[in-house]
Amino acid sequence: xxxxxxxxxxxxxxxxxxxxxxxxxxxxxxxxxxxxxxxxxxxxxxxxxxxxxxxxxxxxxxxxxxxxxxxxxxxxxxxxxxxxxxxxxxxxxxxxxxxxxxxxxxxxxxxxxxxxxxxxxxxxxxxxxxxxxxxxxxxxxxxxxxxxxxxxxxxxxxxxxxxxxxxxxxxxxxxxxxxxxxxxxxxxxxxxxxxxxxxxxxxxxxxxxxxxxxxxxxxxxxxxxxxxxxxxxxxxxxxxxxxxxxxxxxxxxxxxxxxxxxxxxxxxxxxxxxxxxxxxxxx
Amino acid sequence: xxxxxxxxxxxxxxxxxxxxxxxxxxxxxxxxxxxxxxxxxxxxxxxxxxxxxxxxxxxxxxxxxxxxxxxxxxxxxxxxxxxxxxxxxxxxxxxxxxxxxxxxxxxxxxxxxxxxxxxxxxxxxxxxxxxxxxxxxxxxxxxxxxxxxxxxxxxxxxxxxxxxxxxxxxxxxxxxxxxxxxxxxxxxxxxxxxxxxxxxxxxxxxxxxxxxxxxxxxxxxxxxxxxxxxxxxxxxxxxxxxxxxxxxxxxxxxxxxxxxxxxxxxxxxxxxxxxxxxxxxxxxxxxxxxxxxxxxxxxxxxxxxxxxxxxxxxxxxxxxxxxxxxxxxxxxxxxxxxxxxxxxxxxxxxxxxxxxxxxxxxxxxxxxxxxxxxxxxxxxxxxx
Lengths: 283, 384
Known about the structure:
Chain A is mainly α and about 280 residues long. Chain A is about 80% helix and about 0% strand. Chain B contains eight helices and 20 strands.
């Protein structure tokens, strides 16, 4: 009898814990997602100013966004920076990761720290340093300069993801490939690269997101003529607040979501091919 | 059919030899040193065509390092290696044409079984149709004919082992290296694979270098065994020769069980030596190069010791002891027998014949030719 009471108490406290945990999770999610939802709702507002809740719904903010050529221009500028810098960062970081894994522990730590420096040092210092250097080189306010700066900033992210994947690849696989007759480059291309490809792709995506989202360094080295989207948004918000920004934010939110799903998709696709092989083998 | 071949005694001053005709693989004074540590020290070895040679030794004894130097995955500090008369060092691993089976198989996880096995053929630009044919043949040879489109992760350990073996022999290498290939398998499967490897070796007539720390595996598979200890080949010979006539205490201990009785050489009697021990004078076989006054140990195999009731033993050698412990091992019984100086010897008797109980006084008898007298070297452990 007493045992049953104790058991019941135990289950009750267990239920309490479960409810508390759910509540905590719920609150956290609201805290994170709530502001995004508010922006999303506001972007469909008919008001000329930022007011919540919106008096009525309309698409006029989206019309504004499409009709103002400056938004489109800065969006294109952002893409022009993002694509080459993410590509170059991915190439360099992958090559660097492959090199670092062959170094002894001391040298590997040294080189890794150097490569990771841009995300370890405060952004404002990196920004000021790049600004100072580019001033001398005449790169401030050029697409080329922005691409170089973004490459430096995004490279560590790719380096981290690719290094992690490389560490998981058994070094004996490369050794085995060489005993089977594969020269070093072939062994890399046929064995190592396919195994780290998911990490390289997600590093690339990561680099694209970081570049597209980057504000501080871009703010230092861009000019009104060459202005990525983030800088444009920043200067727009600093003036009188045009609610068009909510439409733009919602648009960017959708792009981010797409990026996340794309990454999931890549993972799924890779797993699917395994499953296909399995079913083919068992049939 | 074992090919028995004894190398001449080591000679420090001898320069690297020219490749020996008839030997597939020739290692001459091969050495490997890492920052101050000698991993492999002056290894000399010649392996004949079709021979199965096993490197046996504890971990860290240099056997795998030697194998990896032959494969081209590690660089020797000094010495020379010849394969079919060609100096190996200048060739990178991918040009050596040596098949290697790695400890954890090292199969390519993103390729199917067939793709894994076809890989070395692709590297040699074998036409697709011929490659397919050869992959099919070798898969049949290792008994995996229906598994060609599976991924390695979908195979059992034993199957992965077979794929690794198939991949290493499909391109008909001049030499096959195997680095503890059965270490990850359970005992039953290991024994099955041992006999399959032995059959395959017979069938294909390949030259094999095999690394293991499992003495029974070495005894079952090998034409010759090279016992490695602290970077050197302690002794090399046919399995029976190593077991019957170990030249050092290490070999006597590592290959099979031995009990040791310390003593001092009293006189040399042709093949035999007489030694003075705490239990009186006994005789055994000279393991080579002993002289009166040398400190030695007598190595006794447990199954070569005959037990008799105290006072009734008849043999060349006889000492007295007390049964301390009996261990039942199924087909035999192990007896731990205490001697009067506090040391213990181990003896084996057939279970059915065992009539002794703990506390019984017994005679331990053995024939002089069944016991080897080994010189005591620096670094050997004390009485065992």
